[in-house]
Batch of 4 targets.
Target 1
Amino acid sequence: MTIQKRLVFIFLCVISLSIHALESQEINIEKGEGYETIDPPQPTDDPGKVEVIEFFWYGCPHCYRFEPILQKWLKTRPDYVNYIPQPTAFNATWAKHARAYYTAEALGVIDKMHEDFFTAIQIDKKRLDKEDVLADFFAAHGVKKEDFTNTYSSFLVEAKTRQAEAAPGRYGVTGVPAVVINGKYRVSGTTAKNYDNMIKVMDYLIAKEHAALTKTTVK
């Protein structure tokens, strides 16, 4: 084995071990590990439910990997959970993807396009950051270009895109994917160490908030 091949082999071994260590890292949720507290807590849309906000960006490979894990969780989430997807906009490109999300939502096609947005950007390497390119992409999903253009530039979509730009600051989110539980707790891959832990932390905090909500309701 040449020195160059040996160095490559050693490098790959180190990377493999590092990834394994990260994936197997345990956290003690009951001791406050795996999440951060939001101060001050933010109001929720429905005080009668436990709110779960997912911050994501279609151009984020980490979000792409977390998405199927989250979607699996969503299928079995308790009925007292109010799930809110929140496209995030830290810059102009992110804002265009957020605008695309809200356009699809307003047109009633987000359910069939959400995964395709991820696939197009992450796998097919399409940028989808220009209006004409997005118009073609929507057309491929059965949306008339006129309907796309009118909705893409509508007041509703503009307002929601501005919301996507402001939301991270409101909750102290500095990266994605991130999940906010009931306006009080912030969970991310950084705080929880890996995606499986993120789900565990979410479940713990949701149960905690639901117990507090139930206790308040009983009173």
Target 2
Amino acid sequence: MPVLQFFAGAKDPASFPPESLPEVAFVGRSNVGKSSLINVLTNSTIVRVSNKPGLTRQINFFTASDDFHVVDMPGYGFAYAKEEMRESWKSLIETYIEKRRTLKRLYIMVDARHGVKYIDKQFMEMVDSKNVKFQVVMTKCDLVPRPVLARRYCVVLKDLAEYRHSIKSILMASAHTKAGINNMRKSILHVIGAPIKLLPPSGKSKEPSKKKESKRK
């Protein structure tokens, strides 16, 4: 995958850059591990990472070697933001999802330790109502024992059955161990129509760890 370069930030729809290259967007609850995952996927450190919820306060657009754009969206469900700010983020995200013609895939991050929460379902319902395809990515899979992870996967898959525009295939990944990263890269390159040969050589994919659930954020 190409290394990212930041080229635009938008705090309101009027600031969206012109629609040119295909885009893949990442969104999820605050502290779901979105920024860390984007960095690992793209072999970069350009996306700011923090344990503090609500760090991403605008939609950030990154270019990947002039092939496509990676879009980092504000986390939803940030309880400690002011009401006015939450409404502003909500409007910004919904406008992007509904109006952006170059959006090829919306990846919704779900923490593997918790599964789909009520706020996730609300967000998925909104996306589904706008006839936009989305795919769930279960993050932090290394922090969940495999038997628990397998059961949680089945529960999430069942949750997705009610959404017409959900991709009925869940991606699983860990930014920490890099498990599932190449599968995510293949998914991205497929939806933007890029050749899979852009993938760097790698050995066998790592599997999620069997360690007990951790409190790592």
Target 3
Amino acid sequence: MEKKKIYSYTADSDGIWVVDALTKVSDFSKSAIKRLMSSGAVWFHSGKKQRTVRKASATLKKDEKVKLYFDPNIKEFDMSNVRCVHDTHNWGIWYKPAGLLSQGTKYGDEFTILRHIEKSLKKEIFLIHRLDRETAGLMIFAYNKKAARLLSEQIKERRVEKFYQAVVHGELKESGEIKSKIEGKDAHSIYKVKSYNDKNTQVEVQIITGRKHQIRVHMAELGHPVIGDRIHGKRDGRSLKLVAHKLHMLDPYRPQNKLEFHLGEKEKLF
């Protein structure tokens, strides 16, 4: 894996073009820098404030700093499998394929579901919750600040019920629940065994809390890591068998209406 690089330039006068500035401190051509700007890898830094700069026409003021974050390991992603499951004027449910990031980093956001939706709808989109890169499934997005606030409140108050399908190593014979600490915080999952044999078990998991890698950690703690989990399980070359297949929630604008969303049969594990 090649090393990431950061290129920095501080303007000594007003009106310096960002593209020109970054060509002075990097080995990139102007056209390459413009592509990197478009992909979200160029940032203005002013004190503690940071923001992306995408327009090739951007200029710097005196003492303003711009940084280019370059990751040579970022690969293109086929976005054709990203789809909208349910759409309203204010929010929507989208399907994220495995291998796609939920949101970007300083090194870019071109190949993320958040940026894909923003480009598709041509407006700012708000991420309500995340899925791991390797996990496929349903995600909630808000299309304005009010919807983001209402949906985030539901998440915080645990009124959004999230269900996952997982295939784990070994024979997990009984359904149950697990409560433990993940990075010092309470984590709670409920799991139901759907079918099993001597090699693996199909499980549906509802997460009550939303900790990082929660299902993967909990299944590993039970002695049955999720197949394809290279961090908490075995490195056997298989893809992660974990899909966010179902959501129960309230309509944020009509909370008396309960809503359910499901993945299509082809996108489920079982």
Target 4
Amino acid sequence: MTWSWSLYYSLIFWNNVTIAHRQNINVAIDDIRDSESDFDVSLKLPLIDNLFAELKFEWLYDNQPVPGKELLDTQFSMGINNSW
């Protein structure tokens, strides 16, 4: 069993430009030292019709990673997406 916390917050500016923040935290109830969390910040920019560009920066933390992996991992991504 785990204790979980999730949050998503977004704010729309001007013509559908969206800034968003998401976070997830999971902690094992039987071993509180076993936890994972991930946070990201993104910027969504409208293109045409339902298409939008997204820039995202992610922080991924695992305090008991598999051998050979770091506790903290970061990732930057860019993409073109379609909203239905």
